[in-house]
Write a structure and sequence with these properties.
With 230 residues, the protein is α/β, with parallel strands linked by helices. Helices cover 36% and strands 17% of the residues.
């Protein structure tokens, strides 16, 4: 943020609507309150992320105790300079705001959503920064940019990647293997069947689950259908 402020650029942050965006807003709020970053326009340009943020605010008693206590005395997802862009018109209006500025938008791996419009506009700008937060699935636009591609296609048009690219994995919201095993182990009734849909090293984890819970572990293929009954 300090760098794009000095360079009069744009910090573009692709972020998932659920939890990732709220984590980022929480830390931005903290930095604003501690005056660790300069005052500049920050836009949350994602209707789904905005609605989910409002759900988080409504049920803030369910946060970790220290954060729940903080949320009682302060709006932890809102701060000076932050604007929510709900409509298409509001999203387009961000383009007219003078630099520098920050844009948080979905999707997190840049395969769809409003982030593509911002990427097309600011990837060629050497004064701007693309900040990817969290795991990028191989061959998604986010992953290809991290791997160093300097020409990408967005909406069928070739776009040059001249901006600075930063990658921070620490915001990943997924449970790791131990956390998933602990969660399954805490169920009152042991699972009779497990569908393993979204993880790394999926075959190894499926074998591990089968050994731990002594039930079939299915890795569904695209388009495969299952009928479930009691």
């Amino acid at each position: 943020i300090q760098k794009v402020f000095r360079q009069k650029g744009v910090l573009v942050i692709p972020a998932f609507a659920l939890e990732r965006t709220q984590e980022i807003l929480y830390y931005l709020n903290e930095m604003v309150e501690k005056k660790e970053i300069p005052t500049l326009p920050i836009y949350l340009d994602s209707p789904l992320a905005i609605e989910i943020t409002e759900v988080f605010e409504k049920y803030n008693q369910n946060f970790k105790p220290a954060i729940a206590k903080e949320a009682k005395r302060d709006e932890i997802f809102r701060f000076q300079g932050l604007s929510f862009s709900q409509t298409v018109q509001q999203s387009k209006a961000i383009n007219d705001v003078p630099l520098p500025k920050v844009i948080i938008s979905g999707s997190g791996m840049m395969y769809a959503g409003r982030i593509l419009h911002h990427a097309k506009r600011y990837l060629p700008d050497k004064n701007s920064i693309l900040l990817l937060v969290g795991f990028q699935i191989p061959q998604t636009l986010g992953d290809r940019i991290i791997q160093g591609e300097k020409r990408v296609k967005i909406f069928g048009e070739e776009v040059f990647v001249n901006c600075q690219v930063e990658y921070v994995e620490a915001f990943s919201a997924h449970a790791d293997q131990k956390e998933l095993l602990d969660w399954l182990g805490s169920l009152k009734t042991s699972p009779k069947m497990i569908f393993l849909n979204h993880c790394e090293r999926v075959e190894n984890f499926a074998h591990h689950l089968g050994q731990n819970f002594h039930c079939p572990v299915i890795i569904p293929t695209y388009g495969q259908q299952f009928e479930l009954s009691k």
